[in-house]
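Lab meeting tomorrow. Please check the following:
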Amino acid sequence: MKILSIDTSNYPLGVALIDEGKVIGEHITFFKKNHSVRAMPAVEQLLKECETEPKELTKIVVANGPGSYTGVRIGVTLAKTLAWSLDIPLIPVSSLAALAASGRNFTGHIAPIFDARRGQVYTGLYKFEGDNITQVVEDQNILLSEWVHQLKEFDGEILFIGNDVNIHQEIIKDVLKDKAKLAPFVSNNPRPSELAYIGASLKDQTAHEVVPNYIRLAEAEVKWLESQKNS
């Protein structure tokens, strides 16, 4: 069963191919370039290197947010197009869950972080149970200062993971002290193979059912709704 995973929800771009418990190929980059011109070529190159034809794929897994609005849209649109054209299932997985999975060897709670500007973050709380990652607190958009105070109520150490943790590490350490652990930089990119692994055990969906999960509206959408309300 060959599963293709796609993650363009943030600056890292990742695609992976797994087959019956093996990672056949994985491609990850992290630099500020438009995913719209890189994502499909990355998929094509991966399949070529893995000597896999698109018709051999049995399902596709996509990171459907939260994250960059543009990045989420690109990944979900690409995945929906491929799944629809190949007539195979499409499984959406939280981008935060995929990032948290990079902390697989940590025994405590895991808090993945995407910066959302103005002191806010996209985050949730996860924990591994055996080989499977489980959600302890649902994904949300929240002020980081509020989030770390909520985390004081949880027992044990908490691993903060993600390329944006360094933006907020001062307040994280100030509030949580030694309870807070920061992932090494080599773990901060979400791994598309972990994304595929998570999606492999989830319920199949069709391309038409899958939608982006932005968690919050884009600023332009908020202003438009406010203008409509005022008028």
About this structure: Confidence is low (pLDDT under 50) at residues 218-225. Strands lie at 2-7, 12-19, 22-30, 57-63, 90-93, 109-117, 120-129, 132-143, 158-161, 180-182. Residues 17 and 23 are 6 Å apart (CA to CA).
